[in-house]
Amino acid sequence: MAIAEFSWAASKNASKTSLAFPHAGLTGSKLSDEVLIGNARWFIIFRWGVIAVLLIFQIFALVASDTLTEIGITHQQGWPVVITALLCIANISCIYALDFRKRTKYNSPSINIWAQIIVDLLCLSVVVHYVGSIATPAPFFYVLHIALSCIFFSTVESLIVTVLVCVMYSVVLLFENPLLFLAPQSVLIDSNASGISSLKIHTFLWMFTLDVLFVIVWYVVSRLSIVVRVHERHIVDAYEQISRAQTEKDRYAVLMTHQLKAPLDAIRSKISLIKGNYCGEVSPEIMDVILKVDDRAAGMAGLILDVLKLERLKAAARDPANLTWVNIGGVISKCIDKLQPIANSHHIDINASIEDFVVECVPSQLDILFENIIANAIAYSYDGRSVEIGSSFDKQSLSAAVTIIDHGIGIGDKDLPHIFDEYFYTPRAALHNRTSSGIGLSIVRTVAENNKLRITVSSEQNVGTTFSVVFQGAKSAPTIEKSVQQTESLIANPVNSPVELPEPDKNESHLAPIH
């Protein structure tokens, strides 16, 4: 059995944890607040990881301090705790400024992220000083900040970060080696003058080498970042061109469909006159041809209606949806009533058992979604079988699912991932249902996208297919209905007058939104 899951539930917090690659700022221009907020959140997550590493280092230092001394790390009990506390305070402050403070001139995403960088570099400089600025590879962690600044920032801003790194590392070296400031005359008096001179040369050489390395890393990574951003810009432009072309194609398809609809309706009306013997008697041979033409014309008319319906749904996706609380039981009942004659013609029983719950969606679109799925279940079931429709509702997670099961031809493993593609249908499906337009499930996908739904499909050839439509934020029908009735009663009656609430009607299929 093949199983596939299709989700169109967009995450509201996706930008909070994703690595942002800005489309602007290639030559020092200001990045958008949205990009800077994403980068600030990424730095916060990264800093929590650094805090965890410092805590592990503190524990290791307490257990094996002699080992740290042997490798050149002069551990002191206080500095890891202080650095960890400072980073925790910085993280909490940045989160508070991003999520709980109003955006002002002095509380912008740009200021937030720059404050994080300065705190990070200061703390890293302290760590480099205590761990070892020459004897250990700790200074190379500056390279990480330079690389991230090249990815996150514009070229000019990343250069400023690189200059800050060079200055801070130089200050650390000079602070650790005060003898570098001795005058040459004082050095000559000392018996260890040659050693001091050698130390000075060694320290300055190390400082110069690493500063040059930092600048080289900045240059290389910033150039690569610019190349990536340019290519990303080209990809975005290409995507916009494809989107415009798709819009034009859809517009042309609608225009062509409308142009075909009028003559097709005229042809079908003339065929109806001939079939009704209003144009005189015709021979059985001609009537057979007329019936075949009528059958093909009916299929084309269905395709035209499906295309128009799909384009209307795509247009609705570009506009804010008018969400309403809808009772799922009423929607399923309406679809079953509409499709029952088709099921009867194929001797297919529809068995429905729907738990009473409501979801917030676009009512007319939800009708279209279930109508298409149930119609497919009927069309691709074997004659004489049944279609089962059931539901489940979890009051704790407020999630619900409606499941439609058929006993028919099923879907092959290689075809299952493509069932929601426009105009896609398999040869087996075409042989079983010659009137298929190939866009019924495309309509289902568009409705799912508009209403942020998830659909799971499992199928086995010659056994059947199961569609599960998953809703988030579902609620118990009686609770919603009572709230709606309370609102309506308060509007219709004075505020201070007592209101008697009627019992909720579980059979209600359409509910007004809660205000």
Structural summary, described in words:
By secondary structure, this protein is an alpha+beta fold. It is 60% helix and 11% strand. It has 15 helices and 9 strands. It has a 6-stranded mixed beta sheet with strand order 1-7-8-6-5-3, with helices on one face. It has a 3-stranded antiparallel beta sheet with strand order 2-4-9. Strand 5 and strand 6 form a beta hairpin. The longest helix has 83 residues. The C terminus is likely disordered.
Number of distinct beta strands: 9
Range of strand content: 5-15%
Radius of gyration, CA atoms, in whole angstroms = 35 Å
- Which geometry do the CA atoms define? elongated
Question: Which structural class should the secondary elements be placed in?
Answer: alpha+beta
Helix content: 55-70%
Order of adjacent strands in the largest pleated sheet: 1-7-8-6-5-3
What sequence of helices (H) and strands (E) makes up the elements? EHHHHHHHHHHEHEEHEEHHEEEH
Tally of helical segments: 15
Extract low-pLDDT stretches.
Answer: 11-29, 183-189, 480-515
Mean pLDDT: 77
Largest sheet: 6 strands, mixed
Give the N-to-C terminal Cα separation: 45 Å
Labels describing this entry:
11% strand; 3-stranded antiparallel β-sheet; 6-stranded mixed β-sheet
Write the layout of secondary structure elements.
Layout: E1 2-7, H1 14-17, H2 33-63, H3 65-70, H4 79-99, H5 109-131, H6 141-152, H7 155-176, H8 184-189, H9 193-275, H10 284-317, E2 324-327, H11 328-345, E3 349-353, E4 357-361, H12 363-379, E5 386-394, E6 399-406, H13 427-432, H14 440-451, E7 454-460, E8 464-472, E9 475-476, H15 477-492
Parallel strand pairs: 3-5
Antiparallel strand pairs: 1-7, 2-4, 4-9, 5-6, 6-8, 7-8
Helix pairs in contact: 2-4, 2-5, 4-5, 5-7, 6-7, 6-9, 7-9, 9-10, 10-14, 11-12, 12-14
